[in-house]
């Protein structure tokens, strides 16, 4: 099965490369419920960094898995199911203290609406899409706005409905690009956040797109059609 997944992922990666502008590799991400689900041949990451940094590392060619022990950003880890959301993040206090919101109540209303995977996860696997020997739960693409336009056109091509991105400028690569597509079985576009732009070096002219495995084939076939 791992060989079949690898060949399919290579095919998908080729379609992306031929049809949209890429600044780095699309990233395949798999949520792991237990140690038994670690994809064959994938090693544990050897440093403690943020989820957004892990996505960036995979986009530049690294393959690895991580557990809560390797995640530096606990808010990001909470968004993707590796732990409960830290109380000060969940309450909005953290972001209010950073000056992101006018009042604590407004901060709380926003954090209540953030995408959070509540089902506990044991770990997360990351790989460049063309090297992933597993079926990804979500594919994340970091690229320029023209890429988001092309991906949006694939959705419109199939159902005619306008694309409605869901983001708040916080918890971008964790909540918006991973948790939201995973939970909604959807495609989401997010503008990044201060944390990911600083820690993961998301450039000023880049954004992120999360594509659920439930929509991946649709996006691929539409890219080939249009």
TrEMBL record:
Which Pfam family would be a valid example here? Answer: DUF169
Tell me the superkingdom of the source: Archaea
InterPro entries reported in the protein's UniProt record: DUF169
Name of protein: DUF169 domain-containing protein
What species was this sequence derived from? Methanobrevibacter woesei
